[in-house]
Each structure stands twice: as C-alpha cells, then as structure tokens.
C-alpha cells in the first residue's frame, strides 16, 4: 500500500448516520421556523461541523438559533443512533485489511467527540479505534472545508500530508482533503461523483476501497 496513513471521515463513511441525522436536522430547523427539507439538509450541512448550521441560518435569516440548539439536536440524534445506527457495510473488512497490512489509520470527523463515541459504541467500531486515533473538529476549531482537521490528524499520527489518503463522502470533506494536500477517495453511497469533484478515485462499495489504495 502506497500510503503511510489512511484518514476516514466518520458520518457516512464508517457509520451510516447521514440519513438519520439529516432527517432530524431538517425537521428541527423546520420546527424552529426555518423550513428545511431533507435534501436541503444534505446539500447544505452534510460533512460540516455544527457551527456551519448556526452560521448558515444567521447569514440567510439574520436570526440566531436557540442557545440550547446543539444540546437538543444532539440529544435527538443520539437517541436515533441508539435505536437505528449501523456500521457502513464492509467497513470492518477494510479496517481488518489495513491492520493485516500494517497501515495506520484514524478517523477525522466534523462531529463532536461525543457523537463519534456514541456511534462507535453502538456499532462496535470502538473496538477498531483507540482514543489516540480519533480526531474531531472540536480539536481544531474550524471544521471542513478548512484543512485544519486533516492536517492535525496527520501531525498527531506522524504522517506527512502528501503520504495520506482520506476517505470522504461529502463535498466539504473532499475540499478539505484537497486543501490539506492529501489524496482523497470519495465514497458515493449518498452522492454522485459529479457532486464530489476533485477526488482521486470513486467507489460505491466499501469493499472496493483497498484496491484503490494500492
């Protein structure tokens, strides 16, 4: 394998959380007087940190979301995770292949550390990630499409950016990886290749990823 580090996005790449969380987000924003469809939530917020929701609503309407928005939103999402969340099909096979090949990997997510922990615990992925291999936008302050999170993860894992491969499923994530100077492979389970321009490769089945990384 030609990379020294593989960096995985979390939501939509490791855990199948995007349909759950975006349906909840669209409903909650609509409830608060900001009509949002599920498709609009995916378009505007998929792959971004929570502050992107606040910034977008403020920019569009001049109104601030309630002070308890994050707490309420996360409570609803975590409850849905506990009921319905699953790991992305085939992802444990990919992780097992990386372990067998001795290739380091980590997760770099726009989601909070708590969100990552809840999802990994529910799906069993906590067995594959130690605390030292889990990175969140909380660690750097700026979420994707800024490159900060990916650069932080690479530095902490001891890998040069140009020796890293990023696995992403959102336009914001692809932009962030490219800005960090990393190769990026786009998982197209929820987006078309045309919606993820700039990736070095595309795949719609997680079991195809190892061959792309060779």
From TrEMBL:
Family matches, as InterPro entries: Beta-PGM-like, HAD-like_sf, HAD-SF_hydro_IA, HAD_sf, PGP-like_dom2
Transmembrane region(s): none
Keyword Metal-binding: yes
Swiss-Prot/TrEMBL keywords: Hydrolase, Magnesium, Metal-binding
Broad class of enzyme this protein falls into: hydrolase
GO MF term (any one): hydrolase activity
Cofactors required: Mg(2+)
EC number assigned by the record: 3.1.3.-
Pfam families on file: Hydrolase
Keyword Hydrolase applies: yes
Family (UniProt): Belongs to the HAD-like hydrolase superfamily. CbbY/CbbZ/Gph/YieH family.
Name of the featured protein: HAD family hydrolase
Organism classification: Bacteria, Bacillati, Actinomycetota, Actinomycetes, Kitasatosporales
């Amino acid at each position: 394998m030609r990379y020294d580090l593989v960096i995985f996005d979390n939501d939509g790449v490791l855990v199948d959380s995007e349909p759950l969380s975006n349906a909840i987000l669209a409903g909650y924003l609509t409830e608060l007087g900001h009509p949002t469809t599920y498709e609009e939530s995916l378009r505007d917020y998929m792959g971004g940190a929570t502050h992107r929701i606040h910034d977008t609503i403020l920019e569009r309407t001049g109104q601030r979301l309630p002070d308890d928005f994050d707490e309420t939103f996360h409570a609803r999402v975590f409850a849905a995770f506990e009921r319905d969340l699953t790991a992305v099909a085939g992802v444990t096979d990919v992780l097992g292949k990386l372990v067998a090949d001795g290739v380091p990997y980590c997760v770099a997510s726009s989601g909070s550390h708590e969100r990552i922990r809840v999802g990994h615990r529910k799906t069993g992925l906590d067995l594959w990630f130690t605390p030292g291999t889990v990175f969140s936008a909380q660690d750097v302050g700026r979420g994707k499409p800024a490159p900060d999170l990916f650069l932080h993860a690479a530095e902490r894992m001891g890998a040069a950016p140009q020796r890293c491969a990023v696995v992403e499923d959102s336009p914001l994530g692809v932009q962030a990886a490219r800005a960090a100077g990393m190769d990026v492979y786009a998982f197209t389970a929820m987006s078309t290749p045309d919606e993820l321009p700039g990736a070095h490769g595309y795949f719609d089945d997680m079991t195809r990823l190892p061959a792309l990384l060779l």
